[in-house]
Amino acid sequence: MPRGLLVVFEGAEGAGKSTQLRLLADWLGSRGRDVVAVREPGGTVVGDEIRRILLDPNSDIVSRAEALLFMASRAQLVEREIRPALDSGAIVLLDRFFLSTYAYQGIGRGLPESDLRATNAIATQGLVPDLTLLLTMPVADGLARAVERGERDRMERAELAFHERVAHAFETFTTSGWQTAHPECGPIVLVDATGSEAAVFDRVLGTLRTRWPGTFPVTS
Ligand code: Z5A
Q1: What distance in Å separates the CA atoms of residue 79 and residue 83, rounded to the nearest whole number?
Q2: What is residue 19's predicted lDDT score, i.e. its pLDDT?
Q3: pLDDT (tens digit, 9 = 90+) per residue, 176-186?
Q4: What are the Cα distances from residue 200, in Å, to 15, 43, 103, 135?
Q5: I need a surface site. Which of 70, 123, 182, 193 has the fewest CB within 10 A?
Q6: How much distance in Å is there from the Cα of 220 to the middle of ligand 1?
């Protein structure tokens, strides 16, 4: 059975994950690669409905319900989209995965990590990303970008201290100690997300090329 590649884009609000994922999907697609691009929460009919509830500023959701809703969306996405795509040999590009849960629901909301790990295991059934690209930039700059886009969703409306805790959590995840203690997250590589879209994309591609030169070849 061929096994594709699961590459996750992570990072705080406005770091440019969606932009870089789209650039990479286009780059791979134009080279004839079978690529599947999905995001969390969402990516399935059920997941999109959960996303609407989670991001609606009018939703009153307690932290544990919030965590379980993210997990429900993930379980659906993994089983319905990600595993079949990987089994067919596709490269799956995923906008956020359970590193976000550890950051937002764990450090941000203060839920116990052991509970999150257990529910994540139910949602993912042991699926580990081949690589996570963690885009980093100053938290205020990322939030400013997100704000520029228009109305803020329920998560974006959380207080600045929440977003700062989340950003700090993401920094912690890059340490080898944290990664060794969290093998369920797979390898995590830091990518500097400051500068132009093209400059960041060069870094993204360079990182992938270092690991998989045949899959991400240097071409003109
Ligand atoms: N969440 C959670 O709490 N727990 C979980 O388990 C999961 C998620 C999976 C999803 O919201 C929310 O759910 C998210 C985490 C939480 N909330 N927060 N806060 P989302 O999917 O709507 O949003 P997001 O994932 O945070 O993405 P984002 O805000 O769209 O950010 P982004 O994808 O990193 O950035 P972008 O859309 O590519 O770019 C943002 C803007 O900056 C846009 O206008 C771009 O044109 C611009 N941009 C991008 N790159 C550049 C560069 N290089 N220079 C200048 N401008 C740029």
Answers
A1: 6
A2: 97
A3: 999 999 999 99
A4: 10, 25, 23, 9
A5: 182
A6: 30
Count of domains forming the chain: 1
**What does the alpha-carbon distance between residue 69 and residue 67 come to, in Å, rounded to a whole number?**
5
Ligand 1 contact, 201 CB (< 6 A): no
* CB contact at 8 A, 16 and 197: yes
Q: Does 218 fall in a domain?
A: no
**Residue of minimum CA distance from atom 14 in ligand 1:** 155
Q: What is residue 1's predicted lDDT score, i.e. its pLDDT?
A: 43
Asked whether residue 103 is assigned to any structural domain, the reply reads yes
Residue 220 lies in a domain: no
Examine the pLDDT at 90 and tell me if it is beyond 90: yes
Domain that holds residue 96: 5-210
- pLDDT > 90: what percent of the chain? 82
The confidence band for 220, taking pLDDT boundaries of 50, 70 and 90, is: low
Could you give phi then psi for residue 158, rounded to 5 degrees?
-60, 155
CATH number of the domain within which 52 lies: 3.40.50.300
From ligand 1's centre to the CA of 2, what distance in Å?
A: 31
Q: Would residue 219 count as lying in a domain?
A: no
* Mean pLDDT, all residues of the chain: 94
